[in-house]
Amino acid sequence: MRMSSAVAAACGVVALSALTVPAAHADERFGDTDITGVVVNDGNPVVVGTGARTVTAEVTATDPSGLQQVNATLYHGPFGAPDSTVASTAACGPTVATTTTCTLTFTLTPGTAPADDSLAGDWHLSAYAIAPDSDAVFLDSAATVSVLRDSQVSVDATPKPVKWGRVLTVTGGVRNADWATGTFAGAEAGRPVSLQFRPKGSSTYCTVKTVPTAAGGALSTTVRAYTDGSYRWSYAGTADTAAAVSAGTFVDVVG
Fold this sequence. Notes:
By secondary structure, the protein is mainly beta. It has two domains: 5-148, Immunoglobulin-like, CATH 2.60.40.2550; 151-254, Immunoglobulin-like. The chain contains one helix and 20 strands. The strands form five sheets. Strands 1, 3, 5, 6, 8 and 9 form a six-stranded mixed sheet that branches. Strands 14, 15, 17, 18 and 19 form a five-stranded antiparallel sheet that branches. Strands 10, 12, 13 and 16 form a four-stranded antiparallel sheet that branches.
């Protein structure tokens, strides 16, 4: 729990070093210790599938007397009453350097933290730094990072080969990680997915049309085939699911 300045002065650095998840509701600063930079997962969303996912956060802290300890915790929900937390595997320090960048490691385990899909979305990083002279800084939300459910997209096309100008049926599906069960499950209906085509000999896909997912994440549409090339589905993701693109399926147009 976070300590008041009076208690901190009485107990010193040893007691402060035992802190993990501060429980107050506002940033606190004692003396000239500061946290000047925080980067989680190199600034990218964290995509979690069905297995454990390791994430790093870099916390840069400063104090003229050096740093005794730098640490942080990932959490979801309100700071004072989070519904999921992940502590770092180890704190950094001590160091005599007046500025240090601490690389902290976190392991997100589907089914535990995050326990289920309701915990997808914005997570926060609370961070603190403590100096040898008992100066300290505590930040409730030093950074925010999107934690997303992983996505998989499949594709198929029939018939193969197809006669010139005839109808080609392109199918597939979108599946998202289900953190509670540790499996991938069909996406919700109504999610837009782009059908893309790359002519033979080209390196660029272009969007042909956008199709909504049906029940269970199923995809199906038709196009007329006029030239050899590859088709794929491109899913842009949502606020809680990651973007994904299927492999391409090549279609030979004959006659």
